[in-house]
Amino acid sequence: MAPKIFLTGATGYIGGSVFHTLYTAHPDWSYTVLLRTVPPTFSDLYPAANIIRGDYDSLDAPSTAAAISDADVVVHTGNSDHAPSLRALLRGLKKVVFFATTPLYDDGSTSKTTMNLETKYLIHLSGTGILSDYQSSSASSSSSAGTLNPRIYSDVSLADNTDVFLPPADDTDWKEPLHGETERIVYEAWRREEDAKEQEQETVRVRTAIMRPPDIYGRGLGVGRKTSAYMPWFVREILGVKGEAEVETLGSK
């Protein structure tokens, strides 16, 4: 059976390119997209896509929640810092769906119902901004602007991936990093899944992944936004505002 994909942010710069690439490569898959506003050409380009009109605050609406629960994979490329929508997506994926089993009787009834406990997947778009040192910009700080932070992060190290958003024991001076709240939500969902597996609980399994892209540039492939936020801004600042490119202090990062 073809996988069922539920995707947010399908008209955004990144989400539009992700959706276009998926749809083009796998036109036989089932797609449901959440759109607040539907571009005029969207249905012409993606005729097989099911459109649900709504925003990130309406994911608990019955029809939307049902579509999330029915999905095999949720690709969340929308607002990466919108915590309520992320929680709603996880709730929807965890919902146990009951389906009828054979044999069917003449009156349309069945002998019993069965729980669908197949593994689901959530892919959440974050960003390398969570690793930035913008919170510590004092002149005395070892991670001040323009000074290289010597730490090397590994994407296969659990400690490297959680230290940045889990508060330390002494959190007096700790500040929430960019994307920290939502990444912590995904991490906590993963921890619950690990605990459920150890306890052999009969429940829907939700596997999670976080994407942390850096600054992205190039022409978007979707029907919505075609340009990135950062690169055009950098160019405007250099050419139109400052008239030159600058480096901060040592310029080593």
Automatic annotation (TrEMBL):
Alphabetized InterPro entries for the sequence: NAD(P)-bd_dom_sf, NAD(P)-dependent_oxidoreduct
GO molecular function ontology, one term from the record: aldehyde dehydrogenase (NAD+) activity
A GO cellular component annotation in the UniProt record: cytoplasm
Family matches, as SUPFAM superfamilies: NAD(P)-binding Rossmann-fold domains (SSF51735)
Domain of life: Eukaryota
Name of the protein in question: Putative nucleoside-diphosphate-sugar epimerase
